[in-house]
Amino acid sequence: MVINPNSSDCVTEAIDREVEPFRRYGDFTIDVCGTPGAPPGVSYQTDADVIGPMVQATMAREKASAYIIACFSDPGLLGAREKFDDAIVIGCGENAIFQAMTDGDQFGIISLSIFSTRRQRRKVRMMGVAGRYVGSRGIDSNAVEATSPELLDRMVRAGRELVDLGADIVVTGCASMSHFREPLEDRLSIPVIDPVGSAVSAAIGRCILKRRHGRASAS
Amino acid sequence: MVINPNSSDCVTEAIDREVEPFRRYGDFTIDVCGTPGAPPGVSYQTDADVIGPMVQATMAREKASAYIIACFSDPGLLGAREKFDDAIVIGCGENAIFQAMTDGDQFGIISLSIFSTRRQRRKVRMMGVAGRYVGSRGIDSNAVEATSPELLDRMVRAGRELVDLGADIVVTGCASMSHFREPLEDRLSIPVIDPVGSAVSAAIGRCILKRRHGRASAS
Amino acid sequence: MVINPNSSDCVTEAIDREVEPFRRYGDFTIDVCGTPGAPPGVSYQTDADVIGPMVQATMAREKASAYIIACFSDPGLLGAREKFDDAIVIGCGENAIFQAMTDGDQFGIISLSIFSTRRQRRKVRMMGVAGRYVGSRGIDSNAVEATSPELLDRMVRAGRELVDLGADIVVTGCASMSHFREPLEDRLSIPVIDPVGSAVSAAIGRCILKRRHGRASAS
Amino acid sequence: MVINPNSSDCVTEAIDREVEPFRRYGDFTIDVCGTPGAPPGVSYQTDADVIGPMVQATMAREKASAYIIACFSDPGLLGAREKFDDAIVIGCGENAIFQAMTDGDQFGIISLSIFSTRRQRRKVRMMGVAGRYVGSRGIDSNAVEATSPELLDRMVRAGRELVDLGADIVVTGCASMSHFREPLEDRLSIPVIDPVGSAVSAAIGRCILKRRHGRASAS
Amino acid sequence: MVINPNSSDCVTEAIDREVEPFRRYGDFTIDVCGTPGAPPGVSYQTDADVIGPMVQATMAREKASAYIIACFSDPGLLGAREKFDDAIVIGCGENAIFQAMTDGDQFGIISLSIFSTRRQRRKVRMMGVAGRYVGSRGIDSNAVEATSPELLDRMVRAGRELVDLGADIVVTGCASMSHFREPLEDRLSIPVIDPVGSAVSAAIGRCILKRRHGRASAS
Amino acid sequence: MVINPNSSDCVTEAIDREVEPFRRYGDFTIDVCGTPGAPPGVSYQTDADVIGPMVQATMAREKASAYIIACFSDPGLLGAREKFDDAIVIGCGENAIFQAMTDGDQFGIISLSIFSTRRQRRKVRMMGVAGRYVGSRGIDSNAVEATSPELLDRMVRAGRELVDLGADIVVTGCASMSHFREPLEDRLSIPVIDPVGSAVSAAIGRCILKRRHGRASAS
Fold first, then answer.
1. What is the mean pLDDT of residues C167-183?
2. For labeling, which of C20, D55, D193, F143 is most exposed (least CB within 10 Å)?
3. How confident is the model over F94-111, as pLDDT tens digits?
4. What is the distance between the alpha carbons of residues D135 and D124, in angstroms, rounded to a whole number?
5. Given this chain, do its domains C2-92+197-213 and C94-194 carry the same CATH topology?
6. Which residue of D has its CA nearest to A103?
7. Among C153, C125, C149, C129, which residue's Cα sits nearest to residue C139?
């Protein structure tokens, strides 16, 4: 179960396209759903605030053994983990950051805007990993626009600024940017992590571990 | 404007009692309101999640030059600041922590439960002040119960554990505990900060500063 | 009681001008005094060292319920708090930093010189809040010169460098810079905190709280 | 390819037993090998030092798309990542710590000895995640002995000490302790992470991601 | 030149006894002097504040190529370094902490009192090394009393508490405790660092380096 | 005993030249030896990994009361300290960093390459001193090449970048750069620390302290 926590169909579809190839591994069913009634994207902290309970309501309604909150802001993640403590709950943002810390030494985040940048800084501090974060650089955009192919140059510019700040790995800070991962990696010559692909593959790994244990590792 | 972000009238009344003496200073009007429809208290992260947007809705409805979110979890605080950027928005928890860092060297928090403890740890890390925090100790209670006089012994026990951990100042981690501040201070022999009183006095200071500047300092 | 810990009359007068409007709130008497015999300003660490005991002597001589040490270096602050533990003692620097952490996410400081910059870095580390500090940028000046109107352009340049480093709020790192707050805020388009105004309003808030408690919160 | 970096056959067999159930997912071949000539376990830092190049030699000899270094000390991990930069290289220790930071708020590690404890502290600091680590508690044992069933009581005692220090999740700090995970979880009533199972499932996730990308994410 | 920054002759004599054996190495002259007019010891922050300028005055009066400030609080150290930037200035406290971080992994400090403990915490944070500090434990004493042989049991008790907190090396937090180093080390079974001996030997090393360079390294 | 942990004779000779003047102080014998069979320099983490056990083997073979590992990467340092716990073991890198933290407020490192930079970052984090480190800047070189006089301009450029990042002291991140210390200091106008000279003088200080104690301080 992959939850796009915003109401934009184009974002839900972009996520679904990214998830598609993962469906052929093993016998896991992966559903992607949007969040009708939610804002079209998380631009401001208030968007994340209003979306959090909606994500938790979707999880209460649609039973699954694992949920992915497919928004870099991870709206509702911590409450969901506390409430659904026998399910695997993966936050796109948190998971991408841990992958970046595995694959590189210092990471940077390409963010949509200065408001995203501040949310990301707070998340990084809350995660207790600020010592390996060089910062975020914005591209003055939003989740819907990020599904279009136009943004690559701006992302490359933001990525190069992050490299100048010491990043040896870059995370795209939005769930709609999967299609930019490969060209961005080519242009920047350092690894680029897409939060959606990273989250889906991590969730499959966690589901395998859970079956192995015969129960949730975190129960 | 002091917002009790839960729906418990007894908590709203306790806050109002604590606020009363502050009404005699200067010419500021201080209103206290509850949040009908909200959970009776913030026990879990999901409670804080659901309350955040309600607090922001109250702020949109009731105009004031300063708002106090009278819950230690500061639900909706960051979004509110972003959205109402010409108002003063004080979070009870954040403000009490900064006062503790002014008056003491290492602070600890008396929390309602292990769930509150985890939220407090995350807040402290997010605030970037973990280096001066010795931890939280719970009393297995909730916001409504905390208005009753029965809890003092448990609070003293939690406070002493915090002192053993190195705290030289203690914060009561709930907006309903104001009446315990003085006896707790007497029993622990170190300063105790009540988030409500601290927030109201800080808000008055900020209002005076705002008038002085003729506009919001943070606009 | 506001103590200008240097011997420069022009600085004392500048502080007095800034304090004047605050005198009309409530029934608090606010006196401003200088420190005859002290250096004309805190340029070097040795200046702060020599001034610390002078500030404490002034406090021992002039009884007040609250003292503001009106120098960003907070000379003598920690010793004063230990010694006069039933009084409110506000340090201009420390207090401005906490206000900046309330109103913004990452703060920077406009400093007088590279020597001030190093003192500020040490203070920020000692306060345990380095995770939210982007740094200080100097204007090659001193406390006396900062009372003149000439410095605005240099301060704007320093402020812009701080913004480039990620600051979303800026603190003026000297008690003589109050008159620059408003034009600087206009030029930088982010909030600017003046340590004197911030300290006086915070002290009034703390005095109100102390009256409420009928004794010092930190006793 | 799972590399047991010590020369103890009983440890290699224990790892193989833990890995077995994972072989039925997908079409990945998982081989487990020991390191003849290495010390029987990593008791001291010098053991880890001598084993690092051996692990890297094994990797140069045995081609695989992913390698797991099945020792909590992650000997040779960072050099291996630098050298084999088109392969996935998972360190048991590092990976378990990131899983603990996903599933819990504060983690502790059950270590073999005081020497392991110091290595773990250094690793945690080097990873930049010390803010969420409560510490390690030793059981005065070694990797070979840890394959026997006798140690459970000592592990429970160590785990309880970690809980008292604030841990809400515990990691077993040795690759031979997989069979203790479930009983330990039952006794401690908080989640327990086994580094081997966690690493294998994470490696499968990463292999799926790599196939999806058609090349190494970190190339 | 070793400066005892307090006025107690017995402390000056104790330092001189500790320094004596170092006089036989090389051709360096080592003088020990007290600070007439200073408080008998640094018990409170105000003592350190008043002593700082006195130490700097002594340095201005007595020319030497290296100065040791023989008090764990390092009164006047930072100002002295700024002012006498062609001399070597060693602070007993700072130097002992760096030696502890070289010889051990986590250090603790045996302090005279709760006031010393707070100064030490602030110093450790200001030095930016809090991540390796387990804390300080007091013995309710003062610098003069510490020259007597009575305190060993209390120091052992404090040292054991530091070991329980995770220290593998202990620093005696006062310049009058040199004679306790060896018996304390025997009782605690971990290394104990005496700030005076450590500072003198480090100063000799630094003088040799300075001669080698033909000028101050830090000029 | 100074161990050059690589196999390049020119580096061994450069170290010997730097050590020579220190031989005239006191009665200590200082031998310099290379490491036949080791890589010509530590370019990659795998070089450091392979060299660590060789350094420890040299120490086991050649008895001395103090050893200096004359490579900025400190290969084998931590294992050596654990194993030879009655000897003084100085790591060039670690020791230079502590000297930099004594003489300056924020330090930067001139590194050979991006690979060295990453090792340095990890070392700084592992040492727990990242709060005072502005970063490393590379000169695209290696240990052998660094013995030639050609590199000064590149080092000056790297040094200036570090100053721009806030460094007030710079460390040369390689044991072959001693001859650049003085000209670099002249060009940068801030102190420059050479790890070899710093380590030798510190080792002499520690040997004097050890004789004073009649046994190893850290035994």
1. 94
2. C20
3. 999 999 999 999 999 999
4. 9
5. yes
6. D218
7. C153
Contact D209 A197 (CB under 8 A): yes
Pair C119, C90: CB distance under 8 Å? no
Per the prediction, chain C carries an average pLDDT of 91
Candidate from B171-175, E186-190, F30-34 with smallest mean pLDDT: F30-34
Determine the Cα angle at A124 with ends A17 and D132, to 5°: 120
Instruction: For residue C20, give the chain B residue with the closest CA.
Output: B212
In this prediction the ipTM stands at 0.94
**Residues near D179 by Cβ (< 8 Å), separated by ≥ 6?**
D14, D17, D18, D147, D149
How far are the Cα atoms of C48, C72, E109 from residue C198, in angstroms, in the given order? Answer: 21, 12, 37
Token pair, residue A135, equals: 């910062």
Q: Pairing between strand F169-172 and F192-193?
A: parallel
Asked if the model's pLDDT at residue A187 lies above 60, the reply is: yes
- A7, A23, D217 from A200: Cα distances, Å: 20, 10, 14
- Where does the pLDDT of residue C80 fall: very low under 50, low under 70, confident under 90, or very high at 90 and above? very high
Share above pLDDT 70 across residues of chain D, in percent, rounded to a whole number = 98
Fold of E2-92+197-213: Rossmann fold (3.40.50)
Fold classified for B94-194: Rossmann fold (3.40.50)
Quote the minimal CA–CA distance from F92 to chain E in Å. 12
Q: Which residues contact F28 (CB under 8 A, 6 or more apart)?
A: F204, F207
In DSSP notation, D145-187 reads GGGSGGGHHHHHHHHHHHHHTT-SEEEE-STT-GGGHHHHHHH
Candidate from F44, F52, F80 with C-beta closest to D82: F44
Strand segments, DSSP code E, in chain D are 2-3, 32-33, 66-69, 88-91, 107-111, 133-138, 169-172, 192-193
List pLDDT tens digits, range E82-113: 999 889 999 999 999 999 999 999 999 999 99
Q: Does F53 touch chain D (CB under 8 A)?
A: yes
Cα separation, E218 vs F8, in Å, equals 31
User: Could you report the per-residue pLDDT of C27-54, keeping only the tens digit for each?
Assistant: 788 999 988 888 988 999 999 999 999 9
Measured distance CA(C126)–CA(E121) in Å, rounded? 9
Helix (H, G, I), strand (E, B) or coil at F64: coil
- The answer to whether F38 and F107 have CB atoms below 8 angstroms apart is no
Q: Considering the domain A2-91+197-213, what is its CATH architecture?
A: 3-Layer(aba) Sandwich (3.40)
Q: Which amino acid is at E22?
A: F
> Among all residues of chain B, which has the CA nearest to that of C219?
B191
The subunits that touch chain C, with at least 3 C-beta pairs less than 8 Å apart, are A, B, E, F
Give the three-state DSSP class for C190.
coil
Write down which chains contact chain B via at least 3 CB pairs under 8 A. A, C, D, E
Q: For C67, left (φ over 0), alpha (ψ -120 to 50), or beta?
A: beta
Residues of chain D with pLDDT under 70: 215-219
pLDDT at residue F216 is higher than 50: no
Average pLDDT across chain B, whole number: 91
**Which residue from F minimizes the CA distance to D126?**
F126
Residue ranges of the domains in chain A? 2-91+197-213, 94-194
Q: Which residues of D140-166 are buried (b: 16+ CB within 10 A; e: fewer)?
A: ebbbbbbbeeebbeebbebbebbbebb
Residue B191 has pLDDT above 80, yes or no: yes
- Tell me, yes or no, if D122 comes closer than 8 A to chain E by beta carbon: yes
Q: How is residue D199 written in tokens?
A: 């690493």
Distance from CA of E218 to the nearest CA of F (A): 5
CA angle E80, E86, E92 (to 5 degrees): 45
Q: Do F213 and E104 touch (CB under 8 A)?
A: no
Residue A84 DSSP label? S
Average pLDDT score over residue span F41-49: 93
Q: How many CA atoms lie within 13 A of D6 on its CB side?
A: 28
CATH class of F94-193: alpha beta
